[in-house]
Amino acid sequence: MELIVIKNHKNAKTLIQEMENQLDNQWELGAQGAILQFSTPLDINVWDVIVKYFQQNNLEFSFKIIEEYSKISVEFVI
Fold first, then answer.
1. Which H or E run includes 20?
2. Where are the domains of the chain?
């Protein structure tokens, strides 16, 4: 799995857009998933939005928290 470092944003919407773009790129390259590493630990509110995003999009992704507030393993659901 490819390691993707995501620059942290205080705005969760901007962070999710960057994350989606990076995951879309991996999908198009034929990857089965990716490890998302946030450049610094996320604020708890932003972290909660990210986790909720993956829970709501469970038809596209499965995820596992590797390190709370900073690292998530994502697999594409085919």
1. helix 12-28
2. 2-76
Distances (CA, A) of 70 to 11, 13, 66: 16, 17, 8
Alpha carbons 68 and 78: distance in angstroms, whole number: 26
The CATH number of the structural domain formed by 2-76 is: 3.30.1370
Whole-model pTM? 0.86
Give the tens place of pLDDT for each residue, 21-68.
999 999 999 999 999 999 888 888 889 999 999 999 999 999 999 999
Rounded-to-integer distance, Cα 14 and Cα 16, Å: 5
**Distance (Å, whole) CA 69 – CA 29:** 27
Q: What is the pLDDT of residues 1-20, one digit of tens each?
A: 889 998 877 788 899 999 99
